[in-house]
Amino acid sequence: MKIIIINGPNLNLLGKREPEVYGNETFESYFNKLQDQFSSLTLEYYQSNIEGEIISKIQDTGFSYDGIILNAGAYTHTSIGIGDAVKAITTPVIEVHISNTFSRESFRHQSYISPNAKGVIIGFGLQSYELALRAFE
Predict the structure, then answer these.
(1) Among the options 30, 75, 97, 112, which is catalytic?
(2) How far apart are the first and last CA of the chain?
């Protein structure tokens, strides 16, 4: 089974950015743990701060991979284009968020991804990614 994790803007700053919200661990360190824990899966990781690059990666992987775990960061709440890309592909997408977006600013309560996602996992810290991987097992 081949699964890609796609992270959006500012998630490259995990471990540095707002540790009270996002924790102290870098995503690269956490991804290494996921690879060890889910050694039977082929896991890939991609991160971009650029909306068009995220859309291109969804399109590039969205017909040949078994699953996409997508944390589009702030683009979740603003990008109709990313939402449309998720709708256009055949690979199932699980939307994840590290923080509980519903306990934050009201603009974070809207998602353009959720209507076309297989499921949504919100608010379990980095463990949100592990839960998403378990949903694909």
Answers:
(1) 97
(2) 9
